[in-house]
Amino acid sequence: MVEQTLRRADARPQFRVSKRGKKAAATEFTVYAPAFAEAQKDLYDKDTNPKGFIPMCMAENRTVGAEIEAEFRKVLGELAADPNFPRHELCDYGDFSGMHGFKSAVAQAVSTHLAPPEVAVKALEASAETADQYILKEEKMSPQDVLCVTNGCGSAMNMISFCLGEGDGKDCFITTSPAYPVFATDCALEGNVVVKYAVKTSADDEFKIKL
């Protein structure tokens, strides 16, 4: 009976993965990703786990966590009470590149926070109704300029590499060093676009680019 079961197991077809699937599975996300995942099982807490881990290898801004949580609760409460609840946009297929209202918010945020410092400060100090007047027209982004909203920069880099690169390994992105190491994976794994660290910068001179 045992021998027959083993023979049946041996006769089962093996699952096959494409070459690019095997390449992706064998590609290390980062050298610190396994350590980060392991640390999640034993995170530091001042009161309950003072000997736990404090992962410092991932960019997690926890200093504004309470503010973000409060804003989430406020927005979700307003959304739940809204008689014009956007059921179609949230529950059905809508604009695959992002909701128009969200694009408008992204455009406003980019126009404000990535504007020249003196413009950004005035816009941030103003009310929502008057913030626009402090943003220069030539630098203001409109919702139509937001081609697609992605979940994180990595997804955006992956899409850009796939769309702009030919996939033959001859295209590359040139950037400075030090740089976020996972960009190399984001660009190369599917788009096959190599990231070249061509210019080395330093904190000593505020990471100025010198060619």
Description:
This protein is mainly alpha-helical and 211 residues long. Among the domains are: 52 residues, no CATH class; 61 residues, no CATH class. Helices cover 42% and strands 6% of the residues. It has nine helices and two strands, in the order ααααααααβαβ. Strands 1-2 form a two-stranded parallel ribbon. Helix 8 runs parallel beside helix 9. The longest helix is centred in the middle third of the chain and has 17 residues. It is globular and about 60 Å long. The model has no long low-confidence stretch (mean pLDDT 83). It comes from Perkinsus olseni (Perkinsus atlanticus).
In short:
This protein has helices at residues 2-11, 19-26, 33-39, 65-81, 87-91, 100-113, 117-125, 153-164, 182-188; strands at residues 172-177, 194-200.
